[in-house]
TrEMBL record:
Organism: Elaphomyces granulatus
Domain of life the protein comes from: Eukaryota
Keywords of this entry: Signal
Protein name, per record: Late sexual development protein
Keyword Signal: yes
UniProt signal peptide: 1-21
Amino acid sequence: MRSIFNVAAVLLGLTSTLVTASPVARSSFPNDGFPNPSADQLKGIEQKALGTLPNGNPPNNISADGLINLRLIALNELFEVAYFNDLLNNVTNNVMGYEFKNKKNRDFVIKSLTAVLAQEELHAVNANNALKHFNTDQIQPCKYTFPVSDFQSAIRLAGTFTSLVLGTLQEVIEIFAAKGDAPLTTGVASVVGQEGEQEGWYRLIQGKVPSELPFLTTSTREFAFNALLQTVIVPGSCPNLKAINLTTFGGPLKLLTNVEAKTEPIRFSFEKPSYGYDKFKLAYINQQNVPIVEDIKVKSTDGSTVTIEANFPYDANEMNGLTIAALVKSAGPFKNAQAVADATAFGPALIIIN
Protein backbone atom coordinates (compact mmCIF):
# COMPACT_ATOMS: atom_id res chain seq x y z
CA MET A 1 0.00 0.00 0.00
CA ARG A 2 2.98 2.34 0.32
CA SER A 3 3.03 2.96 -3.41
CA ILE A 4 -0.66 3.94 -3.38
CA PHE A 5 -0.02 6.47 -0.62
CA ASN A 6 2.84 7.97 -2.62
CA VAL A 7 0.60 8.35 -5.67
CA ALA A 8 -1.97 10.15 -3.51
CA ALA A 9 0.72 12.51 -2.27
CA VAL A 10 1.70 13.39 -5.84
CA LEU A 11 -1.90 13.88 -6.97
CA LEU A 12 -2.92 16.12 -4.08
CA GLY A 13 0.32 17.78 -3.06
CA LEU A 14 0.29 16.22 0.39
CA THR A 15 3.15 16.74 2.78
CA SER A 16 5.25 13.68 3.51
CA THR A 17 4.52 13.80 7.25
CA LEU A 18 2.84 10.67 8.56
CA VAL A 19 1.76 10.01 12.12
CA THR A 20 0.96 6.85 14.02
CA ALA A 21 -1.79 7.20 16.56
CA SER A 22 -4.00 4.91 18.57
CA PRO A 23 -7.69 5.08 17.62
CA VAL A 24 -9.68 7.36 19.92
CA ALA A 25 -13.35 6.82 20.77
CA ARG A 26 -15.47 9.52 19.15
CA SER A 27 -19.09 10.38 18.62
CA SER A 28 -18.57 13.95 17.42
CA PHE A 29 -20.97 15.45 14.93
CA PRO A 30 -21.07 18.80 13.13
CA ASN A 31 -22.23 21.77 15.17
CA ASP A 32 -25.43 22.15 13.17
CA GLY A 33 -28.04 20.34 15.25
CA PHE A 34 -27.36 16.92 13.75
CA PRO A 35 -28.79 14.29 14.21
CA ASN A 36 -31.92 16.30 15.07
CA PRO A 37 -31.56 19.63 13.25
CA SER A 38 -34.18 22.36 13.45
CA ALA A 39 -35.84 23.58 10.27
CA ASP A 40 -33.32 26.43 9.95
CA GLN A 41 -30.39 24.12 10.68
CA LEU A 42 -31.66 21.62 8.12
CA LYS A 43 -31.76 24.38 5.50
CA GLY A 44 -28.10 25.13 6.22
CA ILE A 45 -27.18 21.45 5.87
CA GLU A 46 -29.04 21.27 2.56
CA GLN A 47 -27.16 24.27 1.24
CA LYS A 48 -23.83 22.60 2.05
CA ALA A 49 -25.10 19.33 0.57
CA LEU A 50 -26.00 21.07 -2.70
CA GLY A 51 -29.52 19.63 -2.52
CA THR A 52 -32.49 18.85 -0.31
CA LEU A 53 -34.14 16.00 1.52
CA PRO A 54 -36.80 14.23 -0.57
CA ASN A 55 -40.15 15.96 0.03
CA GLY A 56 -42.47 13.28 -1.28
CA ASN A 57 -44.67 11.23 1.02
CA PRO A 58 -43.37 7.79 2.11
CA PRO A 59 -45.77 4.85 1.78
CA ASN A 60 -48.19 4.17 4.63
CA ASN A 61 -46.89 0.69 5.40
CA ILE A 62 -43.59 -1.14 5.50
CA SER A 63 -42.52 -4.75 6.02
CA ALA A 64 -40.52 -6.00 9.01
CA ASP A 65 -37.53 -6.54 6.72
CA GLY A 66 -37.99 -3.06 5.33
CA LEU A 67 -37.62 -1.65 8.85
CA ILE A 68 -34.39 -3.61 9.28
CA ASN A 69 -33.14 -2.03 6.05
CA LEU A 70 -33.87 1.48 7.33
CA ARG A 71 -32.30 0.80 10.71
CA LEU A 72 -29.10 -0.54 9.18
CA ILE A 73 -28.92 2.41 6.79
CA ALA A 74 -29.34 4.83 9.71
CA LEU A 75 -26.67 3.02 11.75
CA ASN A 76 -24.19 3.24 8.88
CA GLU A 77 -25.00 6.84 7.96
CA LEU A 78 -24.55 8.02 11.56
CA PHE A 79 -21.08 6.48 11.54
CA GLU A 80 -20.27 8.08 8.19
CA VAL A 81 -21.27 11.52 9.46
CA ALA A 82 -18.95 11.15 12.45
CA TYR A 83 -16.17 9.83 10.21
CA PHE A 84 -16.31 12.57 7.59
CA ASN A 85 -16.76 15.25 10.24
CA ASP A 86 -13.54 14.04 11.87
CA LEU A 87 -11.73 13.88 8.52
CA LEU A 88 -12.89 17.35 7.48
CA ASN A 89 -11.81 18.82 10.82
CA ASN A 90 -8.38 17.21 10.53
CA VAL A 91 -7.80 18.64 7.05
CA THR A 92 -9.23 22.06 7.94
CA ASN A 93 -7.07 22.35 11.07
CA ASN A 94 -3.89 21.01 9.44
CA VAL A 95 -3.59 18.16 11.91
CA MET A 96 -0.28 16.36 11.47
CA GLY A 97 -0.65 13.78 8.69
CA TYR A 98 -3.49 15.75 7.09
CA GLU A 99 -1.52 18.74 5.77
CA PHE A 100 -1.28 19.76 2.10
CA LYS A 101 1.59 21.53 0.36
CA ASN A 102 -0.70 22.91 -2.33
CA LYS A 103 -3.35 25.36 -1.10
CA LYS A 104 -5.52 24.93 -4.19
CA ASN A 105 -5.68 21.16 -3.66
CA ARG A 106 -6.37 21.62 0.05
CA ASP A 107 -9.21 24.04 -0.67
CA PHE A 108 -10.74 21.59 -3.16
CA VAL A 109 -10.56 18.71 -0.67
CA ILE A 110 -12.20 20.84 2.02
CA LYS A 111 -14.95 21.90 -0.42
CA SER A 112 -15.53 18.28 -1.47
CA LEU A 113 -15.55 16.88 2.07
CA THR A 114 -17.92 19.64 3.20
CA ALA A 115 -20.42 18.49 0.56
CA VAL A 116 -19.89 14.79 1.33
CA LEU A 117 -20.40 15.38 5.05
CA ALA A 118 -23.63 17.31 4.54
CA GLN A 119 -24.90 14.72 2.05
CA GLU A 120 -24.28 11.94 4.58
CA GLU A 121 -26.13 13.98 7.19
CA LEU A 122 -29.14 14.10 4.89
CA HIS A 123 -28.90 10.35 4.27
CA ALA A 124 -29.01 9.72 8.02
CA VAL A 125 -31.82 12.20 8.67
CA ASN A 126 -33.83 10.72 5.80
CA ALA A 127 -33.51 7.16 7.15
CA ASN A 128 -34.43 8.16 10.69
CA ASN A 129 -37.30 10.35 9.45
CA ALA A 130 -38.65 7.29 7.64
CA LEU A 131 -38.44 5.24 10.84
CA LYS A 132 -40.32 8.00 12.65
CA HIS A 133 -42.93 8.03 9.90
CA PHE A 134 -43.48 4.31 10.46
CA ASN A 135 -43.93 4.88 14.21
CA THR A 136 -40.77 3.12 15.32
CA ASP A 137 -37.75 4.37 17.25
CA GLN A 138 -35.02 6.16 15.38
CA ILE A 139 -31.49 4.74 15.53
CA GLN A 140 -29.32 6.61 18.01
CA PRO A 141 -25.61 7.40 17.52
CA CYS A 142 -22.86 5.17 18.90
CA LYS A 143 -19.29 6.00 19.79
CA TYR A 144 -16.66 5.16 17.20
CA THR A 145 -12.99 4.44 16.73
CA PHE A 146 -11.37 5.35 13.45
CA PRO A 147 -8.31 3.18 12.73
CA VAL A 148 -6.57 5.84 10.61
CA SER A 149 -3.78 8.29 11.32
CA ASP A 150 -3.33 10.39 8.15
CA PHE A 151 -5.19 11.55 5.08
CA GLN A 152 -4.10 8.66 2.88
CA SER A 153 -5.23 5.94 5.29
CA ALA A 154 -8.46 7.85 5.93
CA ILE A 155 -9.26 7.94 2.22
CA ARG A 156 -8.36 4.28 1.85
CA LEU A 157 -10.78 3.35 4.65
CA ALA A 158 -13.47 5.60 3.17
CA GLY A 159 -13.07 3.79 -0.13
CA THR A 160 -13.29 0.39 1.54
CA PHE A 161 -16.48 1.01 3.49
CA THR A 162 -18.06 2.80 0.54
CA SER A 163 -17.43 -0.29 -1.62
CA LEU A 164 -19.14 -2.39 1.04
CA VAL A 165 -22.06 0.05 1.23
CA LEU A 166 -22.48 -0.08 -2.54
CA GLY A 167 -22.69 -3.87 -2.33
CA THR A 168 -25.08 -3.84 0.61
CA LEU A 169 -27.51 -1.37 -0.94
CA GLN A 170 -27.97 -3.82 -3.80
CA GLU A 171 -29.49 -6.28 -1.32
CA VAL A 172 -31.45 -3.54 0.43
CA ILE A 173 -33.16 -2.63 -2.85
CA GLU A 174 -33.87 -6.29 -3.61
CA ILE A 175 -35.42 -6.83 -0.17
CA PHE A 176 -37.58 -3.72 -0.46
CA ALA A 177 -38.86 -4.95 -3.82
CA ALA A 178 -39.43 -8.54 -2.66
CA LYS A 179 -41.24 -7.54 0.55
CA GLY A 180 -43.70 -5.14 -1.03
CA ASP A 181 -41.78 -1.95 -0.23
CA ALA A 182 -41.06 -1.03 -3.85
CA PRO A 183 -41.81 2.71 -3.35
CA LEU A 184 -38.70 2.90 -1.18
CA THR A 185 -36.37 1.55 -3.85
CA THR A 186 -36.04 4.75 -5.89
CA GLY A 187 -34.56 6.80 -3.06
CA VAL A 188 -32.04 4.08 -2.22
CA ALA A 189 -31.08 3.74 -5.88
CA SER A 190 -30.38 7.48 -5.98
CA VAL A 191 -28.05 7.04 -3.00
CA VAL A 192 -26.26 4.19 -4.81
CA GLY A 193 -25.37 6.64 -7.56
CA GLN A 194 -24.24 9.27 -5.08
CA GLU A 195 -22.05 6.80 -3.16
CA GLY A 196 -20.60 5.62 -6.47
CA GLU A 197 -19.58 9.19 -7.27
CA GLN A 198 -17.85 9.37 -3.90
CA GLU A 199 -16.11 6.05 -4.46
CA GLY A 200 -14.72 7.19 -7.81
CA TRP A 201 -13.15 10.20 -6.10
CA TYR A 202 -11.61 8.12 -3.31
CA ARG A 203 -10.17 5.73 -5.88
CA LEU A 204 -8.76 8.56 -7.99
CA ILE A 205 -7.00 9.99 -4.94
CA GLN A 206 -5.37 6.58 -4.45
CA GLY A 207 -4.17 6.50 -8.05
CA LYS A 208 -6.73 3.88 -9.06
CA VAL A 209 -9.04 3.73 -12.08
CA PRO A 210 -12.16 5.59 -10.83
CA SER A 211 -14.65 2.92 -11.95
CA GLU A 212 -13.87 -0.22 -9.98
CA LEU A 213 -15.65 -3.01 -11.87
CA PRO A 214 -18.21 -3.58 -14.62
CA PHE A 215 -20.56 -5.15 -12.02
CA LEU A 216 -19.87 -4.10 -8.45
CA THR A 217 -19.43 -6.79 -5.79
CA THR A 218 -22.63 -7.63 -3.97
CA SER A 219 -22.88 -7.85 -0.19
CA THR A 220 -25.49 -8.50 2.50
CA ARG A 221 -26.85 -6.62 5.45
CA GLU A 222 -25.11 -9.05 7.82
CA PHE A 223 -21.67 -8.36 6.36
CA ALA A 224 -22.16 -4.59 6.60
CA PHE A 225 -23.53 -4.85 10.14
CA ASN A 226 -20.65 -6.99 11.39
CA ALA A 227 -18.04 -4.87 9.62
CA LEU A 228 -19.32 -1.84 11.54
CA LEU A 229 -19.38 -3.70 14.84
CA GLN A 230 -15.88 -5.10 14.38
CA THR A 231 -14.13 -2.08 12.91
CA VAL A 232 -15.51 1.27 14.06
CA ILE A 233 -18.24 0.93 16.71
CA VAL A 234 -17.15 0.97 20.35
CA PRO A 235 -18.68 -2.13 22.00
CA GLY A 236 -21.62 -1.31 24.23
CA SER A 237 -21.87 2.30 23.03
CA CYS A 238 -25.02 2.03 20.87
CA PRO A 239 -28.22 2.92 22.78
CA ASN A 240 -30.59 0.82 20.65
CA LEU A 241 -28.44 -1.54 18.60
CA LYS A 242 -30.73 -4.47 19.52
CA ALA A 243 -33.43 -2.91 17.34
CA ILE A 244 -31.40 -4.03 14.32
CA ASN A 245 -32.37 -7.68 14.10
CA LEU A 246 -29.36 -9.03 12.22
CA THR A 247 -27.01 -11.92 13.02
CA THR A 248 -23.76 -11.15 14.82
CA PHE A 249 -20.93 -13.40 13.66
CA GLY A 250 -18.46 -15.12 15.99
CA GLY A 251 -15.89 -12.39 15.52
CA PRO A 252 -13.50 -10.76 13.07
CA LEU A 253 -11.59 -12.57 10.34
CA LYS A 254 -8.32 -10.68 10.19
CA LEU A 255 -6.51 -10.51 6.87
CA LEU A 256 -2.77 -10.99 7.42
CA THR A 257 -1.52 -10.90 3.81
CA ASN A 258 -1.00 -7.89 1.56
CA VAL A 259 -3.04 -9.41 -1.28
CA GLU A 260 -1.88 -8.78 -4.84
CA ALA A 261 -3.45 -9.37 -8.25
CA LYS A 262 -2.32 -12.98 -8.56
CA THR A 263 -3.28 -16.46 -7.46
CA GLU A 264 -1.51 -17.25 -4.21
CA PRO A 265 -2.12 -18.60 -0.71
CA ILE A 266 -3.13 -15.86 1.73
CA ARG A 267 -3.46 -15.90 5.50
CA PHE A 268 -6.12 -14.93 7.99
CA SER A 269 -6.54 -15.24 11.74
CA PHE A 270 -9.52 -15.56 14.06
CA GLU A 271 -10.21 -16.23 17.71
CA LYS A 272 -10.47 -19.93 18.48
CA PRO A 273 -14.15 -20.79 19.09
CA SER A 274 -15.44 -23.04 21.85
CA TYR A 275 -16.59 -25.53 19.22
CA GLY A 276 -14.65 -27.42 16.55
CA TYR A 277 -13.56 -25.69 13.38
CA ASP A 278 -12.01 -28.57 11.45
CA LYS A 279 -14.76 -28.46 8.82
CA PHE A 280 -14.56 -24.72 8.19
CA LYS A 281 -14.01 -23.44 4.66
CA LEU A 282 -13.21 -20.02 3.27
CA ALA A 283 -15.74 -18.37 0.98
CA TYR A 284 -15.05 -15.45 -1.36
CA ILE A 285 -17.71 -13.12 -2.75
CA ASN A 286 -16.57 -11.07 -5.73
CA GLN A 287 -18.53 -9.08 -8.31
CA GLN A 288 -21.89 -10.65 -9.28
CA ASN A 289 -20.48 -14.17 -9.45
CA VAL A 290 -21.35 -17.33 -7.55
CA PRO A 291 -19.32 -17.45 -4.31
CA ILE A 292 -16.04 -19.37 -4.41
CA VAL A 293 -15.19 -21.88 -1.67
CA GLU A 294 -11.61 -22.83 -0.79
CA ASP A 295 -10.13 -25.32 1.67
CA ILE A 296 -8.18 -23.93 4.61
CA LYS A 297 -4.97 -25.07 6.27
CA VAL A 298 -4.36 -24.32 9.93
CA LYS A 299 -0.84 -22.87 10.06
CA SER A 300 -0.59 -22.17 13.78
CA THR A 301 -2.50 -21.80 17.02
CA ASP A 302 -1.03 -19.23 19.39
CA GLY A 303 -3.07 -19.09 22.57
CA SER A 304 -6.59 -18.32 21.42
CA THR A 305 -5.54 -17.05 17.96
CA VAL A 306 -5.80 -19.44 15.02
CA THR A 307 -3.91 -18.62 11.82
CA ILE A 308 -5.11 -20.21 8.60
CA GLU A 309 -4.12 -20.21 4.94
CA ALA A 310 -6.33 -20.51 1.87
CA ASN A 311 -5.86 -20.07 -1.85
CA PHE A 312 -6.86 -16.75 -3.38
CA PRO A 313 -7.90 -17.79 -6.93
CA TYR A 314 -7.38 -14.45 -8.65
CA ASP A 315 -6.28 -15.58 -12.10
CA ALA A 316 -9.17 -17.95 -12.82
CA ASN A 317 -11.78 -15.46 -11.67
CA GLU A 318 -10.40 -11.96 -12.42
CA MET A 319 -10.98 -11.05 -8.78
CA ASN A 320 -10.57 -7.30 -8.96
CA GLY A 321 -12.36 -4.72 -6.89
CA LEU A 322 -13.93 -5.67 -3.58
CA THR A 323 -13.80 -9.28 -2.40
CA ILE A 324 -15.59 -10.27 0.79
CA ALA A 325 -13.97 -13.22 2.57
CA ALA A 326 -15.80 -15.22 5.22
CA LEU A 327 -14.97 -18.29 7.25
CA VAL A 328 -17.97 -20.56 6.80
CA LYS A 329 -19.26 -23.63 8.62
CA SER A 330 -19.90 -25.76 5.52
CA ALA A 331 -18.47 -26.46 2.09
CA GLY A 332 -21.49 -25.15 0.25
CA PRO A 333 -21.97 -24.78 -2.61
CA PHE A 334 -23.44 -21.33 -1.99
CA LYS A 335 -25.80 -19.91 -4.57
CA ASN A 336 -25.37 -16.29 -3.51
CA ALA A 337 -23.91 -13.89 -0.95
CA GLN A 338 -26.84 -14.36 1.43
CA ALA A 339 -26.20 -18.10 1.57
CA VAL A 340 -22.60 -17.35 2.55
CA ALA A 341 -23.74 -14.93 5.25
CA ASP A 342 -26.13 -17.55 6.63
CA ALA A 343 -23.21 -19.98 7.01
CA THR A 344 -20.60 -17.50 8.27
CA ALA A 345 -18.79 -18.15 11.53
CA PHE A 346 -16.15 -15.38 11.30
CA GLY A 347 -15.87 -12.37 9.04
CA PRO A 348 -15.98 -10.37 6.95
CA ALA A 349 -12.45 -9.69 5.76
CA LEU A 350 -12.40 -7.12 2.98
CA ILE A 351 -9.93 -7.32 0.09
CA ILE A 352 -9.67 -4.65 -2.60
CA ILE A 353 -7.54 -5.12 -5.72
CA ASN A 354 -6.96 -2.49 -8.48
